[in-house]
Model the fold of this input.
Amino acid sequence: MSVNERFAAIRKGLLEFLILRIVSADKVYVADILQRLSATEFATQEGTLYPLLSKMRREGLVDYEWQESEAGPPRKYYRLTAKGKSQLAELNDYWKDINTTVNQLGR
Amino acid sequence: MQKVVTINLNGRAYQLDENGYDALRAYLDRADAQLKDNPDRAEIIADLEQAIADKCRRYFTATKTVVEAGEIATVLEEMGPVVESEPAVSDAEQQATDGDRAAAAQGATGTTTDSTTAGGSNTGDDASSGAPEGDRAKDTGAPTPKRLYRVNEGAIFGGVCNGLAAYLNVDVTVVRVIFVVFTIAESRIFHVSGLAPAVYLALMFFLPSASTSEERAAASGAPFNAREVVEQAKKNYATYRGTTLKGNWKAEKREWRRLRREARRRRQMERWGLGSPPPPADAPYVDYGTRVRAGMLLPILMLVRFALFWTLLFSVISVLTSGSIRGWRVPGDVPVWLIVLGLFALYNFLSWPLRLARRASYHALGSPWAVRSAGPADGLMTGAFWIAVAWLAYNYVPQARAVMQELPRMLNDLWDKLTLMS
Done:
């Protein structure tokens, strides 16, 4: 089992966290998010991202608004809701804790 | 050669070859099955469609307008499988149930309730949960530009009333009643007669008929996107599957008969010098404007050809009877048969570009018109058209009336001359 496969479940779990981080930094639409992720270990495809964003919106973490674009039809721009922001703060703290734990245990 | 399927992804027309269309349909079917229990299914599918459309755009050039199967495959590869993001199911389990779920959804589409909920009503539901109502329209695809077409499905005569009804979004009966009432009452109110039928006839010639499903959607301005195509395809599939058990053999026989009929008609058309009909399904896409122009050109070409033909006939008759054409005396030393031959050559020479233009118009109008033009119904129509023209000329053009009254005598003279010569 390669490292890549070993961490598949972890990456999957972290994806939502990363999307929250990306959306918190800037008002983005789906192509932006995919582009930000593309060069990383978390490279994602539309087929995964759209359902995930839809789920996050149902849970009230993100919301979107329509904006006209110069090229093509209007786009959905996502931003964090208040709930999303508090969730992100929580996850950030938790992530820091995990990092600390990982670093503390052995070397 | 491949069949081309035109679909509309969020307000833009895309042409895919058949394999590409099948792949896209399969992808969207699978997505639909995956998101079966998702309350935002319609919205997610619309988003996916939009993303596919955006990705397809890069394959277009000035000369290339069809997305090929390989390109669709690349696009769908980039899109990745649609994964329902419910945390409860692990990756491996999901993979395992993928196929089963798709199969289950396939089975379920046979029922009408499933087809309808997947279509329009779902989009209405999630309007409350998301963006404001106005934005929702953009989500499901900007409405196709509305255009006036003839709609032959359920038409009584030429489909003009039907097309108008679709365009005005009213019941076709209303349009028909207005048309009939206007036809009867127009002489009393406006002191004209025959205006409504004339307008009808003109529209029948000018308007292209809505022959593709996209054009039928455009006829009523309905939004039309891949999902609807998929729904329609599913419904067709369901009915096909319903009949396939008991009617397969019959359907095959019917299809075979149809092909044979088509081949025969093709041969006949070639024999009659109508040129080979355009290939029915693979005809190049011709835009609305060209088709309207072709529709207007066709009767004009018919009239010009008609006039030319009668000019020839009268010239020949006139040469034979009086040895002169409209005051121009044939030089005495030129034999009459040479003059007649010359006239025929001139006629052929003049009508040659007309024939070409007519054939081009037929091509532009697409297969239904061109193929049907050789059929008996169209023959009747053409006959009725010329009888109408003759009647009008007889009643309103004195010269034409004089010529027509002269005609029997002229034919008698011709007959006498021919019998005298032999």
Strands of chain B lie at 4-9, 12-17, 66-67, 324-325, 328-329. Chain B is about 70% helix and 5% strand. Chain B has a mean pLDDT of 67.
